[in-house]
């Protein structure tokens, strides 16, 4: 037999596609040709596979070998095809009977000595195989626990090409995936550690309950970073769909921790202010990889010292914040990653950043405007909650317990508010208030009475807020009502929302 075929999975962004790896061996000068839009890593598979086959004690066929990856119109990236190519090649040469591998997806990168190394993106690959009706998959040992997360999939693992060959020939059992490890205990920063700052704590709670973006402005030591780092501690755990999505993103990025479990805690990303556009929104040669905004999907993206970030990097966040996804165009095709994250910006009010606050500022008015002007109006217009934090007082700092509620207490209120919002917007397909489109809020039955929005309408007519700002304040009002257990926002809720958005007492 000179022809053989096995199954693999190709990944484009987060979308997996079933790929047939064909091998045809013909008479002629020895050569290996790979077709089907392979990238550089796949072209190099010729040398890796040859060395792995020979060093695993198998005979290399000195014939003209044609390897084809179907569908041929789909770009193929990465080294996850190595093991499937080796098996198809051995099957085509007559060395392996491939009946035991029918309807089995094979994934893995080969070392020159025949070891099978883990690859990125196994979770979305196995999920794609399951959607295609595949029930069995063979993966590297290092990816076995990750692959076993997909329900209904029979996962087996290999550590060497030789082990897979003996399984096919003699039926020697493959390696069972390890049992999933229990989730680690919930620990981390607690909101009770924050001294004082009742306005900041209220803003954080409202942002968590409604999924709103947050900007914290204040002098050094006011607690901006402490508040931002504690936002994940008051967010609800991820449900099954969100956890699978978040885990898949971290799998593609190669950041998935060991243990074989879904990531249930909202992720937290805090890139340095020298971060590039590609590191924030995604990029890279060939297959664009997810950036920090996607790795923070269903969690928090925290930009500390936000004015110090590059203007291009900040402006690149505008589209993901608006649409909840990142679309990356490359010469070999586009890639899309989800980016439904909560953005938290922290900034000093001026370059000198005196801890005592504005009263001791040494900066000129022009310097202050230029510094905060690095945060553009269109970007800030997408930030729902914008508050100024005062310096911490000695009495607040010296209070033994911090003087505030713990994360567990606040998290219960946030969970109840989110449940109320999810129930209300279930018919529209939204989870939190921040996702609801403005037209829905301005039409019955959700439109608020004119008497409750008089101040807000006046600010829109005067130009002090934009139409986008108008909708965001309405969303904030709904979140405040949910936190306080009311079915609809009142005039007081709208006024508090205006204050949280603009910093002005209405």
Automatic annotation (TrEMBL):
MF (Gene Ontology): ATP binding
Domain of life: Bacteria
Chain positions covered by the region annotation Disordered: 173-195
Keyword Transcription: no
Domain named AAA+ ATPase: residues: 210-393
Pfam families found in the cross-reference section: ChlI, Mg_chelatase, Mg_chelatase_C
UniProt key word Nucleotide-binding: yes
Keywords linked to the UniProt accession: ATP-binding, Nucleotide-binding
SMART domains linked to this entry: AAA (SM00382)
Segments of skewed composition (Pro residues): 175-187
CDD domains on file: AAA
InterPro entries: AAA+_ATPase, CHLI-like, Mg_chelat-rel, Mg_chelat-rel_C, Mg_chelatse_chII-like_cat_dom, P-loop_NTPase, Ribosomal_Su5_D2-typ_SF, Ribsml_uS5_D2-typ_fold_subgr
Similarity field: Belongs to the Mg-chelatase subunits D/I family. ComM subfamily.
Protein name, entry field: ATP-binding protein
Natural source organism: Micromonospora costi
């Amino acid at each position: 037999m000179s022809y053989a075929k096995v199954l693999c999975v190709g990944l484009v962004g987060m979308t997996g596609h079933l790929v047939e790896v064909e091998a045809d061996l013909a008479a002629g000068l020895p050569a290996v040709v790979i077709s089907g839009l392979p990238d550089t890593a796949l072209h190099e598979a010729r040398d890796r596979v040859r060395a792995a086959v020979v060093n695993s004690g198998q005979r290399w066929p000195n014939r003209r070998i044609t390897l084809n990856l179907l569908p041929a119109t789909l770009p193929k990236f990465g080294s996850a095809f190595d093991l499937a190519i080796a098996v198809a090649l051995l099957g085509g040469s007559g060395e392996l009977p491939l009946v035991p591998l029918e309807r089995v997806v094979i994934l893995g990168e080969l070392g020159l000595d025949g070891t099978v190394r883990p690859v990125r993106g196994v979770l979305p690959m196995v999920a794609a195989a399951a959607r295609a009706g595949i029930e069995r998959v063979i993966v590297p040992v290092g990816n076995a626990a990750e692959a076993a997360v997909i329900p209904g999939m029979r996962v087996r693992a290999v550590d060497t090409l030789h082990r897979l060959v003996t399984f096919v020939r003699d039926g020697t059992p493959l390696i069972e995936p390890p049992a999933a490890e229990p989730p680690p205990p919930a620990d981390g920063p607690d909101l009770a550690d924050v001294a004082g700052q009742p306005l900041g704590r209220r803003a954080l709670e409202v942002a968590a309950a409604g999924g709103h973006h947050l900007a914290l402005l204040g002098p050094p030591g006011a607690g901006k970073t402490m508040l931002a780092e504690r936002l994940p501690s008051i967010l609800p755990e991820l449900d099954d769909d969100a956890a699978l999505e978040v885990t898949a993103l971290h799998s593609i990025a190669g950041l998935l921790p060991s243990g074989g479990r879904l990531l249930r805690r909202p992720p937290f990303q805090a890139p340095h202010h020298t971060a590039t556009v590609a590191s924030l929104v995604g990029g890279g040669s060939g297959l664009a990889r997810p950036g920090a905004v996607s790795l923070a999907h269903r969690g928090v993206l925290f930009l500390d010292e936000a004015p110090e970030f590059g203007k291009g990097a900040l402006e690149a966040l505008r589209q993901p914040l608006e649409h909840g996804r990142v679309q990356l165009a490359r010469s070999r095709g586009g890639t899309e990653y989800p980016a439904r994250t909560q953005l938290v910006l922290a900034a000093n009010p001026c370059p000198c950043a005196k801890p005592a606050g504005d009263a001791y500022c040494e900066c000129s008015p022009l310097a202050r405007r230029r510094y905060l002007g690095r945060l553009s109006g269109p970007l800030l217009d997408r930030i729902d909650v914008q508050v100024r934090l005062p310096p911490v007082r000695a009495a607040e700092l010296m209070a033994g317990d911090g003087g505030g509620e713990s994360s567990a207490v606040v998290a219960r209120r946030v969970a109840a508010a989110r449940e109320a919002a999810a129930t209300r917007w279930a018919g529209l397909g939204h989870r939190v208030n921040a996702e609801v489109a403005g037209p829905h809020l301005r039409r019955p039955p959700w439109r608020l009475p004119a008497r409750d929005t008089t101040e807000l309408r006046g600010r829109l007519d005067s130009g002090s807020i934009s139409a986008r700002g108008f909708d965001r304040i309405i969303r904030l009002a709904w979140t405040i009502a949910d936190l306080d257990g009311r079915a609809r926002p009142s005039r007081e809720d709208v006024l508090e929302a205006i204050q949280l958005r603009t910093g002005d007492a209405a």
